[in-house]
Here is the input.
Amino acid sequence: MNKKKSPKITFNLFYFVFFLVLIFQSHVAFAEQTIISIPSSEVLPFGNLMLKESNRLSPFLDDFSGTMTPSATFGLGRGFELSTGVATTINESTMVRGNFAAKKVFFLGKGTRLTVGGSVNPYFTGQTSPDSLLYAHLSQRIKKTRTSITAGAYAHGQRSMPNNAGVLLGLEQVIIPNKLRFAMDWISGENSYAKMGVGLKYRPVPTVSITSAVIIPNEDEDKIGFNFSISKFISLKDYSLNKKETTPCLEKKNL
Here is the structure.
């Protein structure tokens, strides 16, 4: 019994320590659940928490660029989700940018969801206006083929209120149920937000998700980047229940 449990305990402890190390390094970042770049229709139940570490590298630029993005997302219940964090980009100089995002998912029927949301990204280095984003999209899940299709629209502002609009498109295809998925999304336009992402999502255990993807901006293909992220899902309800169950046991032993 102990041999079977030890790998899971070690795995969970690794990601918990990894996340704490990133926090103490003052790198906190974006936390939304996404297809690749587009916020997805997935929403955390009330009392659930997602810790996420996402890294992006742009090796083909003249000045090698990298972004570290550890983050946190909270399930508020009734289809609401709140995300918060800070991203740190390092190239010739260091840029620190915050992220405060929220979304609401409406369940319209079997396999159909409407998602609306937005985010504000203040800059902590330099005095400038924050980036802003508003979006809405519909997602349809096709049960027979295990496919999810997303389509919608967005309005984005770089260091301003939203002043650029475009289309959002996304696709997720299950390859191995509960283990491996192919994901792809595209954001139209010629602004900093517009890009295409293609990648794979893998779940080694039910509470951990690993995503690797290639990011190709619409504006300049030379700025191609690579994303790698690890997400850890935690149920605060389960933690609370386990705590209540262990307390009576200790009291009985003391008696």
Remarks:
- Residues 1-31, 249-255 have pLDDT under 50 and may be disordered.
- The longest strand covers residues 94-109.
- The two ends are 29 Å apart (CA to CA).
